[in-house]
Amino acid sequence: MNRRTVLTGGAVGALAVVLPAGADGAPQAKPLPTDAEIYGVPTVDPLISQRADPWITKPVNGTYYFTGSVPEYDRLVIRGASTIEGLASAEESVIWRRPTSGRMGGHIWAPELHRIGGRWYIYFAAGDAGDVFRIRTYVMESALDDPRDPAGWTLKGQLVTEWDGFTLDATSFTHKGRQYLVWAQSEPEIAVNTSLYIAEMANPWTFKSKPTRIATPTKSWEIIGYRVNEGPAVLIRNGKVFITFSASATDANYCMGLLTASASADLLKRESWTKNPDPIFVSNEETERYGPGHNSFTVAEDGKTDVLVYHARDYKAITGDPLYDPNRHTRVQKVYWHEDGTPLFGIPVGSGGPIVRLSPADAKRSFVKHEGDAIRAVQAPRELELTQFRFVKAADGAETIQSVDQPAKFVAVDGTRVALGATGTPVTRIAVKDGVTIRVAPGRFLKVLKNGELTVADKATVFTLS
């Protein structure tokens, strides 16, 4: 069954140098962080070419480790670096190759690397040499500190599930002292390609509980090409357990959904989980990123900023079976959080420097947002991509403010009207107490009115960048 036919961005847009006393906007004595420091996540895109189903660990003894599917589907690879950005150029170690015949001699897919009980484990899917799509999940173990050393790895065997069926994309997590596994599998008598299941583990390769099916593809965005829920990834925050997953065929229809459970709930009960009615991360024509999905999560070097790791292509049209198109590239971007504690993923942001959101310093729950071409400050918006901007520096040193989700458009000023347009108005950021002011002409600044509308005035609004 083939269900898959199926740098840090430099200081681009860094804050203007603090001006001397008496200049526009009372200066701070200390420079504010650069946009790259504010964003906190590398903007190299792609981070790693031709690596699908990407998995980046949280730092272990100061090192991030990466693994993912290679286009040949024939081996397991690991690379490591002290930073996420460093993974882009890190040497890759082959820790295992498939045999030339028999079990595990077929397609090798979607490895995940986990540190459990002081040892390393890799969960991966493998077909057989005589039937490359007879996919089952296997587990390898290493007692060595460095998972890149092939000498440490031994095969523990197949992860034996409740029934013998197409099984892949296992991920492991610990919650309240219990080890869980979530995976995708075809279940007899259910007419879909794969659903998602959860079980408690006795050890990393043995189930302690029977599986519970927590999601099956039924919605229109989950059944395009194939009826698929797969690629689960777990994020625990704000009293909730979130599981992202991928759906539909692996072409431009591939997208991400979200399951949510209370952190105090019994995670082995189906009723504990709620599926978002709509996808939370999809292809984007404007940024030219297609088929985003099969994600994982890590944290930035600050230890706090959540990072979405996913693959996507740079083009929509695919010749032949998308499973064999090699250009699903690994990408990373920042996960944001709404004030209600739920994650905001926005869109695949595409190429460009670090991203900021502008919030009036006297209304910190509000963010500057474009609604079509109109621009205003809105309280706690959920449409993350409409609130994301880049300060783009021209050759002459002037900056313009670029929309992230409409990269061909910039903040433009016409008299006192502020809107998105094809040509941006040059601006100057001036560091002041509590943030920056944005000057658009001598003595003229961006200002937020009481109704949230953006205008131009001689008195500036102070913005914080977040």
Describe this structure in a few short sentences.
With 466 residues, this protein is mainly β.
**Which percent bin holds the helix content?**
under 10%
Average pLDDT number = 93
Proportion of strand residues: 35-45%
Distance between the termini: 46 Å
Q: Which consecutive residue ranges, at least 5 long each, have pLDDT under 50?
A: 1-29
Largest sheet: 5 strands, antiparallel
Number of helices: 1
What would the principal axes of the Cα set say about the shape?
Answer: elongated
User: Based on helices, strands and strand pairing, what is the structural class?
Assistant: mainly beta
Record field, number of beta strands: 34
Radius of gyration: 24 Å
Describe it for me?
The protein is elongated. The strands form eleven sheets. Strands 9, 10, 11, 12 and 13 form a five-stranded antiparallel beta sheet that branches. Strands 1-2-3-4 form a four-stranded antiparallel beta sheet, with no helix packed on it. It has one helix and 34 strands. It is an all-beta fold.
Keyphrases for this structure?
466 residues, mainly beta, 34 strands, elongated, disordered N terminus
